[in-house]
Write a structure and sequence with these properties.
By secondary structure, the chain is an alpha+beta fold. Helices cover 50% and strands 15% of the residues.
Length: 807
């Protein structure tokens, strides 16, 4: 131990004697280790750590699938059947999608998002309210006592963290409910936006038909039951349900997904890609430091020879040299922790992709141990090769004044060359990965969403259930609001709709389609999407009318059954025909087929589920057929729509002060949010790729520069014998560029193999896109040429007389 402390003390003194070298090495290491620490902190919290539920590995999500194999929700009826038949689970619970509620009472009305959940959900997750209690079975029934559990954030914001809030009444969408529990601060399930929870069976859709699928179902596996066994049981249940209810369940399968996979699956590929990228950056940083240490070791050969001559064995010297490198690496790791901490805060501040925060994202013991381990390993990696090269020195040659150790220098040059090749190859892989994401993002932004985003303001209206229970009251309110907004200067048109484009696919609503004159078994009816939109919605969004006309308020007043469909539906079910005048029918929530409806118009298709998702067949009903409680208003303006925000809020307040306005955004903001995950991943990988490029350029510059310094005398001799400055320039460039081109070639091969792992992250770009590979190869070659040219230019200016005296 004492000997080790002496080695560390000697190493620190040695590093302090070479301040420039030490500073450069620590900064380089801090960048590499800091980037790894920051990304690992997120990976650890999101991917590696268990979810904060007791025995969370026993939890799994259940989904229905059909046709496209896309995960879909459960109907209430299917949920109850599976719950009664499945023996692999100790309990099954359910939750609705996010629901829009309105809090009224003291203060301004506030829009709140929450969920309807089964009474046993919190017990199933084994998470108890921080204060109060959970739901009772008697409360989870139609007509049960109105009770609510709130989040800690809502309790603190709305009630000032009043400990006497339990038992108080809260007005939720016009209904008075008793607060019975307050959840812990970090609690979330499925969606972090939920701030209150209401018993499931009090949902208005609890008696819906088997075709109406709204529920997310979670189960806790019995001890000893594996996911494969549970999946097999669900397959059998799905077959029984298909046999018993062919109209609703034909072709419907049941799928089990571990809850951890469900929560992290969307983010895992991007996070692991970034983690691999920062790993390559660290390796490139190590290669640079190895080259720095090789240069430094050339000046220490005499010191090592003296110590060896005085009796120090090679293992003892190796330990000393490795201790110095590990000490240097640990210092770089300490600086890296500071950079990593800042990097994590920056990631969370810029977090547009809603990284799941079931576990608090921050540095903990695991992260610190990881940083310490990679610091030590990094020190060994970049210290071992220079130490070994140093110990290969010939003692007699090194002890002579001016002895250079030709064998060691030749080995050093070979190792430096290999490191430069490796740096260029790794930088090439990273740059191609970043280039593919950039081209993919460019293609995504070129996609036409089916509407015009400029000068478009959106806002959601929350009509309280109690005040606007009658559909006619809701319709009148929206007609008055539309008229008021249209009379505002700078407003050209106004409309409203049930759901805006580019929203989550989990909030998408589908129905089954029947076409007059086509005999299709009920169980094989195709699924289509539907929305309710006002007449002015299409003009406001600039969704083109391709044929026919739109449904008007007068049509609804006259009880005419008219609908509009999108172009995708027209092409799928009436290819080469005009569907205007055709009659169709759908299934309503009660399970009954609605009367035949006549198609009166076809509008352009809109990419509702994302710019990267093809439009699906869709029907538009007029909003007045069933006026929504939470419509989204769209306002087209002649100037910056943000200027209309306060005016629009005021118009709503003039009509009813108890109607809250929420989710106020421009459509351009919503489009940007829809692609934020791709933009964020592209941005981070681009940063890491540029850092790798910079380090690789520094590396090749350093090697070529050192080579010029070592060959100064040789260059002088060549020039004395008649070699021109141009000949010297070509010689130096040839030596440097040969290494760079070999690295580029190896990088192309490596990228060709590795970028296939990115296919899930790309849009309309292949993992082996020739354009990207070619452009990156040319760019990297140009950077390498510049890095080689600077020392080559210095070599051209060597004075032969001075060079011949160079030692």
């Amino acid at each position: 131990m004492e000997s080790m402390l002496k080695d560390i003390s000697y190493g620190l003194r040695s590093l302090l004697q070479h301040k420039t070298f030490t500073a450069i090495a620590i900064v380089t290491l801090a960048l590499g280790i800091g980037a790894n620490t920051a990304i690992f902190t997120v990976v650890n919290a999101v991917v590696l750590r268990a979810l904060p539920y007791q025995d969370s590995e026993r939890l799994a999500m259940l989904w229905t699938t059909k046709d496209t194999n896309q995960e879909q929700s459960f109907s209430f009826a299917d949920y109850n059947d599976v719950k009664s038949q499945a023996k692999s689970f100790s309990a099954l619970g359910a939750a609705s999608p996010l629901w829009n509620f309105t809090l009224t009472g003291d203060g301004e009305p506030e829009p709140i998002q929450g969920m309807y959940v089964s009474a046993n959900l919190f017990e199933l997750l084994r998470v108890a309210p921080e204060r109060g209690r959970g739901f009772l079975v008697d409360e989870d029934r139609a007509g049960g006592p109105p009770v609510v559990i709130v989040s800690r954030a809502l309790w603190e914001r709305r009630f000032g963290a009043d400990p006497n809030a339990l038992g108080k009444q809260m007005s939720i969408s016009g209904t008075s409910a008793t607060i019975i529990g307050i959840m812990p601060a970090q609690f979330q399930f499925l969606d972090p936006a939920a701030e209150l929870w209401v018993p499931l069976m009090q949902n208005q859709f609890a008696s819906s038909a088997r075709q109406v699928r709204l529920l997310s179902v979670v189960g806790r596996l019995n001890d000893g039951v594996q996911t494969g066994e549970a999946s097999a049981e669900l397959t059998g249940i799905a077959r029984r349900l298909e046999s018993e209810y062919p109209d609703a369940n034909s072709g419907v399968k049941l799928r089990l997904v571990p809850l951890h996979t469900q929560v992290t699956g969307k983010f895992r590929p991007a996070l692991l890609l970034l983690f691999g990228a920062v790993g390559l950056v660290l390796l490139i940083a190590c290669a640079n430091i190895i080259n720095l240490m090789l240069v430094r070791s050339a000046g220490r050969q005499r010191e090592i020879a003296v110590r060896a001559a005085l009796g120090a064995g090679r293992l003892r010297l190796l330990r000393q040299l490795l201790t110095e490198s590990i000490t240097l690496s640990v210092l770089g790791g300490a600086a890296g922790i500071l950079l990593g901490s800042w990097g994590v805060n920056a990631l969370l501040a810029l977090n547009p992709i809603a990284i799941p925060s079931y576990n608090k994202i921050g540095m903990d013991v695991t992260v610190l141990v990881f940083t310490l381990v990679i610091s030590v390993v990094t020190g060994i990696v970049f210290g071992l090769a220079p130490a070994w090269q140093t110990l290969r020195v010939d003692l007699n040659s090194a002890l002579k004044e001016g002895g250079r150790g030709a064998v060691a220098e030749a080995g050093q040059r070979r190792l430096s060359s290999l490191l430069v090749i490796a740096e260029m190859a790794m930088a090439m892989v990273l740059l191609i990965g970043a280039g593919l994401l950039m081209r993919s993002f460019e293609r995504l932004l070129d996609v036409q969403p089916g509407f015009t985003t400029e000068n478009l303001l959106t806002m959601q209206i929350g009509l309280p259930n109690a005040s606007y229970q009658q559909p006619q009251k809701r319709a009148v309110f929206m007609q008055q609001l539309e008229a008021s907004l249209r009379g505002t200067p700078e407003v050209t048109s106004v409309g409203y709709v049930t759901r805006l484009p580019l929203m989550s696919a989990l909030n998408n609503i589908t129905t089954f389609l029947a076409i007059e004159g086509r005999q299709v078994p009920a169980g094989e009816r195709p699924e289509i999407d539907f929305r309710r939109a006002s007449t002015g919605y299409f003009q406001t969004m600039s969704i083109p009318l391709l044929s026919g006309r739109l449904v008007t308020e007068q049509d609804v007043t006259n009880n005419s059954s008219f609908v509009v469909i999108n172009d995708a539906m027209a092409k799928r079910f009436w290819p080469g025909e005009d569907p205007v005048g055709k009659r169709i029918s759908t299934i309503v929530s009660s399970g009954q087929q609605v009367p035949w409806q006549t198609i009166v118009g076809v509008v352009g298709s809109v990419r509702h589920l994302g710019l990267d998702v093809e439009p699906r067949p869709e029907i538009y009903y007029h909003t007045n057929t069933q006026p929504p409680f939470g419509p989204v208003v769209v306002i087209r303006t002649t100037s910056d729509p943000k200027r209309l925000i306060s005016i629009a809020r005021g118009k709503v307040r003039e009509l009813d002060r108890d109607v809250p306005v929420s989710n106020v955004n421009t459509m351009e903001q919503l489009v940007a949010q829809s692609v934020a995950q791709r933009r964020f991943g592209m941005f981070l990988l681009g940063i890491f790729a540029l850092l790798a490029l910079l380090l690789a350029a520094i590396g090749i510059y350093g090697v070529v520069s050192y080579s010029v310094t070592q060959r100064t005398q040789e260059i002088g001799v060549r020039m004395a014998l008649g070699a021109s400055a141009t000949n010297v320039l070509k010689m130096v460039l040839r030596n440097g560029m040969s290494l760079a081109l070999i690295g580029v070639g190896l990088g192309l091969a490596g990228a060709f193999a590795l970028t296939r792992l990115m296919s899930r992250l790309l849009f309309e770009v292949t993992p082996t896109d020739v354009t990207t590979f070619a452009l990156v190869a040319v760019a990297l070659t140009v950077v390498a040429l510049l890095a080689c040219y600077l020392p080559a230019r210095r070599a051209m200016k060597v004075d032969p007389l001075e060079a011949l005296r160079y030692e």
